[in-house]
Backbone:
């Protein structure tokens, strides 16, 4: 399937708006067209520099496509199922449920974890009256921490964190998150910053950048 990358100021604004909903930061509301999908491994080879400004870890060979089923991040106690997130009939991006034990969600417009390109997994930081979300502790991750994604075909994709960034939603780095890269990469995204009251939203996004280091 052909995939195009977002590349305009409009796409950046829409990406930030969509992520505000995905992270469980604010009640759902009508949204414009969601961010454009990232390119697949067969897309044009235009690489985005590593988020750290240094070379990415030596990447393992890219894996064949297989849907993610489970994400484990031992460093912060995450062991969650992974659901697929597509687009709703009205053009909004679907979100994980605002419910107790809501899972993380893989954006199905991105490569599957282990394929060449940036695979994107999103999760709530809070889930309304149910309390903490699956990515509540995401900002605690540091470069060198490891995580794994178990895939539908039984294989496991292991990733190592390159960097963790907290950015204002108004400055969401769309190209760095969704832009094509020449190795298998993973992006984990949730909300961050100080919440604006019990029923308010969060001003920032926490973004984890990771690369594939082993496949089994």
Residues:
């Amino acid at each position: 399937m052909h995939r195009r990358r977002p590349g305009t100021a409009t796409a950046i604004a829409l990406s930030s708006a969509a992520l505000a909903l995905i992270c469980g930061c604010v009640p759902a509301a009508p949204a414009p067209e969601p961010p454009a999908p990232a390119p697949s491994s067969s897309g044009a080879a235009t690489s985005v520099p590593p988020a750290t400004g240094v070379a990415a870890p030596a990447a393992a060979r890219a894996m064949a496509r297989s849907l993610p089923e489970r994400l484990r991040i031992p460093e912060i106690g995450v062991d969650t199922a992974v659901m697929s997130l597509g687009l709703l009939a009205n053009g909004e991006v679907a979100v994980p449920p605002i419910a107790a034990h809501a899972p993380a969600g893989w954006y199905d417009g991105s490569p599957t974890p282990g394929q060449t390109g940036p695979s994107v997994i999103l999760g709530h930081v809070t889930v309304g009256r149910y309390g903490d979300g699956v990515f509540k502790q995401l900002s605690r991750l540091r470069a060198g921490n490891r995580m794994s994604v178990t895939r539908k075909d039984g294989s496991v994709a292991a990733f190592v964190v390159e960097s963790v960034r907290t950015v204002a939603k108004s400055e969401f780095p769309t190209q760095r998150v969704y832009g094509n890269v020449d190795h298998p990469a993973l992006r984990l995204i949730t909300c961050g910053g100080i919440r604006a009251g019990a029923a308010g939203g969060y001003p920032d996004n926490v973004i984890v950048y990771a690369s594939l280091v082993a496949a089994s």
About this structure: The domain at 9-215 is CATH 2.40.260.10 (Sortase; Chain: A;). The first helix runs from residue 9 to 22. The chain has one domain: 9-215.
